[in-house]
Amino acid sequence: MNRKIKQGDKEYSSFQLFIEITEKRSSAIISLSEPETVNKEMFKLILLLSCFVGSRLRQEDFPPRIVEHPSDVIVSKGEPTTLNCKAEGRPTPTIEWYKDGERVETDKDDPRSHRMLLPSGSLFFLRIVHGRRSKPDEGSYVCVARNYLGEAVSRNASLEVACK
């Protein structure tokens, strides 16, 4: 059975493939038939389209894309600031922030955090923390939007603390 098909091989030369999408749009019937056979259909296969966690893929679902990228900011120690990020996607993507390659902890991780993830996806700092030895807020930030269809990464934005 595992032989190479050559042009002119009679048993393979005149097959036809038919695909019929069912009304439910979650399955399709694929038929392979040879016109010379009496039965016309050698076999049928019901193909169930792949689903994600039990839900059907809908035509309107699409992967995330960043529609507002964060911008560089210079802010004074102790002052509030916001790094903006907005993303589109369906289902609505989740947003995470990374600073210098490390995930940023927000109020969702620790209620005492001075960083808040806003519903829009932006990162709000209640106050900028900056010391001689510790500079936890200064650095390069990106936001990452994710849903089951993929992810989108924003441009880098630097947060610098102004010297007084």
From TrEMBL:
Residues 64-160 form the Ig-like domain. Keywords: Immunoglobulin domain. One of its GO terms (cellular component) is plasma membrane. GO terms for biological process: axon guidance; dendrite self-avoidance; homophilic cell adhesion via plasma membrane adhesion molecules. The keyword RNA-binding does not apply. SMART domains: IG, IGc2. The keyword Membrane does not apply. GO terms for molecular function: cell-cell adhesion mediator activity. Transmembrane segments: none annotated. This is Roundabout like protein 2. The lineage of its organism: Eukaryota, Metazoa, Chordata, Craniata, Vertebrata.
